[in-house]
Specification:
alpha+beta, six-stranded antiparallel barrel
């Protein structure tokens, strides 16, 4: 599997090393409960790429938020790439349904309430205590997807 969403700068290398370490913990089942490895088929390469993600659970539903915006994994999902969530040995096929901007503010707030410390460098000063108007204005910059189990025919 290849890694996407990184560059060759010092920050990009650090992020790649960090993602690899977290991915290893996820594959061992030793990462925090909400951590999964998102596996998505590349829209150009056709290869399965892996990216650690935090799965946000709200009212019995699961969501993926991209605090870094329209990254490679987001573009691959939008192109209809095959998607799985992995933790330990379990690999679940899922469908990711992108939400409209109007549906995002409460989910973005919940995401930042839980993981704001982890993603603060990517969200342009937005915090869990930002105003509703600030979340509404920011919503177009942050893709949010609902995770639905894929039912095989």
């Amino acid at each position: 599997m290849s890694r996407d969403d990184h560059d060759h700068s010092a920050g990009g290398r650090l992020l790649s090393v960090s993602n690899a370490a977290v991915g290893g913990l996820i594959r061992l089942g030793a990462a925090p409960r909400a951590c999964r490895e998102l596996l998505v088929r590349g829209r150009r390469s056709g290869r399965l790429t892996a990216r650690p993600v935090n799965v946000l659970a709200v009212d019995g539903r699961r969501y993926l938020v991209s605090p870094r915006g329209s990254t490679q994994w987001v573009r691959n999902v939008r192109a209809g790439g095959e998607v799985f969530l992995r933790r330990g040995r379990r690999v679940d096929p899922v469908d990711l349904i992108e939400l409209d901007d109007e549906q995002k503010p409460d989910l973005l707030r919940a995401y930042l309430d839980r993981w704001g410390w982890q993603v603060s460098a990517f969200v342009d000063g937005l915090t869990a205590s930002s105003t509703d108007a600030e979340f509404a204005a920011a919503a177009p910059r942050f893709p949010v997807f609902e995770c639905a189990p894929r039912h095989r025919p």
